[in-house]
């Protein structure tokens, strides 16, 4: 028995001596493996070329030697995030025929605060502060930016998530008592990306940055604790849903460009067709092609992207703020003076408070004082989201322009390199948008020439098809070999789409979104062209859309009332027209089959008001 114990002790001693050596060898091996690879972003000339490259990569045999690996396929542009060997990197850079660009997936630091501290009094816990009968801190920035003024969400809009506000950062400490969002409440969700994958987006450790940013935006006001953010009323009253993308690993201060871009795509996907504001309190001096393409695509699709101008106090461009698709935010102090640390260049667009800002800490219920364009950016992002809830039919470009037009002018000239267009004034921007009503962008221009030769059945939204016919992309009638029923639907964005029961789209009108606060009229002209207009000025109609159909039938004056639900119309075999929407039962007309199916007139109920 004693001998066994002695042998066991010897074995344990040997293991204790060998284990550190094994661990060191493994770490050295991993380090060598990391040194063999470079993380890159690879662009392609078109999507087909990218798909073919991905297919070949996945079919490559594994040899045990270092090989390239695809980490992510971007959705908004023809690009991949990859891990490649250094030898492969050099080959790829020389292959301009296959790749439009190859760039390293660089690390991007958070827009590091120009100075932060746990200020006296500011870091006391709630209990200590209540004992001293201190009320909540209200930043000077609240009044400077008009965040204290009333801005109510549109009561007729979505009552849960009117606007999505996305914080791409180090995570947000959701359990802070001054954050009125709770996991599982339907108003907040999050996800991790890059080196932060697998960590808790709602409980960051070793870094306060994301929680500081969120505090400026959403800290609850009027609760006698903590601070008040620019959206102080909580999600149920503000109609703002929060999305948290954690891209910075616990205890770190950097992220990769690929992680930031994946997170940005996710934010836009979460919002769907709702307005979304994305805050990026990051900055680096290098312009990236992939980043530029994705942010431009997201902006074109309706996202409002806001970023910190940078804290180096110089004139260099900092990205992503310097992209044309992004609002670059500079910092000012309580006297509306330019902060010495804030970048000065012609990309600066708006100024906001960024010096000595009280905000929230992670891992506690304490508050802290911090500063930097990282704190100025969420002032603008949060206020933009709040404004947008009141005018949800406005586009991101209209909201952005209103922020510029109503900013309080600072410095010499407008815009200028220190302040851009000036200090953001939320209520003034809100009032301008409410007064303007926001107009949809011009519709896609219809073709001016009819198809040649003329089709046997003239196309038009006013035409219903026989079961053996369909419409192709250039508006001509072609034979339908499958004898499918054809459906016409007005989608929620106002677009008219022709499709079959398998949801195969045969034609799309490109009609723009119709705001519900306008009335539209449609006239089916003698030449068969369906013209939609919204008003008549000086005896001339303001044309919103035209079908360019060619049916030679009489004029019909029809009133169109926008229908957010969308409308579907189909012609049954007995000639009756049926229509329905997602919010109503199927209805049937008493209209009989016309003698000539090519001249079935437009049915106004597609926009329904019954």
From TrEMBL:
<feature type="domain" description="Bulb-type lectin">
    <location>
        <begin position="462"/>
        <end position="583"/>
    </location>
</feature>
<dbReference type="GO" id="GO:0005615">
    <property type="term" value="C:extracellular space"/>
</dbReference>
<dbReference type="InterPro" id="IPR036852">
    <property type="entry name" value="Peptidase_S8/S53_dom_sf"/>
</dbReference>
<dbReference type="InterPro" id="IPR036426">
    <property type="entry name" value="Bulb-type_lectin_dom_sf"/>
</dbReference>
<keyword id="KW-0720">Serine protease</keyword>
<comment type="similarity">
    <text>Belongs to the peptidase S8 family.</text>
</comment>
<dbReference type="GO" id="GO:0004252">
    <property type="term" value="F:serine-type endopeptidase activity"/>
</dbReference>
<feature type="active site" description="Charge relay system">
    <location>
        <position position="169"/>
    </location>
</feature>
<protein>
    <recommendedName>
        <fullName>subtilisin</fullName>
        <ecNumber>3.4.21.62</ecNumber>
    </recommendedName>
</protein>
<dbReference type="InterPro" id="IPR001480">
    <property type="entry name" value="Bulb-type_lectin_dom"/>
</dbReference>
<keyword id="KW-0645">Protease</keyword>
<dbReference type="InterPro" id="IPR023828">
    <property type="entry name" value="Peptidase_S8_Ser-AS"/>
</dbReference>
<dbReference type="InterPro" id="IPR015500">
    <property type="entry name" value="Peptidase_S8_subtilisin-rel"/>
</dbReference>
<keyword id="KW-0378">Hydrolase</keyword>
<keyword id="KW-0732">Signal</keyword>
<dbReference type="InterPro" id="IPR050131">
    <property type="entry name" value="Peptidase_S8_subtilisin-like"/>
</dbReference>
<feature type="active site" description="Charge relay system">
    <location>
        <position position="209"/>
    </location>
</feature>
<feature type="signal peptide">
    <location>
        <begin position="1"/>
        <end position="24"/>
    </location>
</feature>
<feature type="active site" description="Charge relay system">
    <location>
        <position position="374"/>
    </location>
</feature>
<dbReference type="GO" id="GO:0006508">
    <property type="term" value="P:proteolysis"/>
</dbReference>
<dbReference type="Pfam" id="PF00082">
    <property type="entry name" value="Peptidase_S8"/>
</dbReference>
<dbReference type="InterPro" id="IPR000209">
    <property type="entry name" value="Peptidase_S8/S53_dom"/>
</dbReference>
